[in-house]
Amino acid sequence: MPTTKAIALEQLKKALPDMDPKLFEKKCIESQPSNIFLPGPYSILDLYIDGRALHGAPDSNNGTVGEEGFRTTIKDILGEKFTSEPNGQPAVWVSSLAAINANEIMPKLKALPRPLEHFKSSFDGYAATVKKGYVCAAQNADFETATGRP
Length: 150
Prior knowledge:
Blueprint: H1 4-15, E1 29-32, H2 44-50, H3 52-55, H4 68-78, E2 92-95, H5 102-111, H6 115-147
């Protein structure tokens, strides 16, 4: 069965071929200055799957919602239109690991296809195959019941 995580990891391996794939799941990326609504740390995988890498780091925040990127990120995550006035200072993504340079990685993540879209199409194909298998099994069970033969 396809999973969004597996699809995303495959895309990350292609986009970042020189990086150790174990680093994709290391939670070491935060926005600086920080934002209380999105405190982190996050992994490269987190930022890619939920779309935060598309919009940049959210502005710093002390308790009120702000920054267009943050509003767009919340919209992506919640699927709702979110409105608020900008608040705080512009922020950037930073990594606590020297092996991960957030400034180099984020543009590469933006260029990748969205993993959820790929998952939806992959899952539809998987579901159709499973359904055909169940129909076939049910038809065989009906035949065996009707004829008394396996």
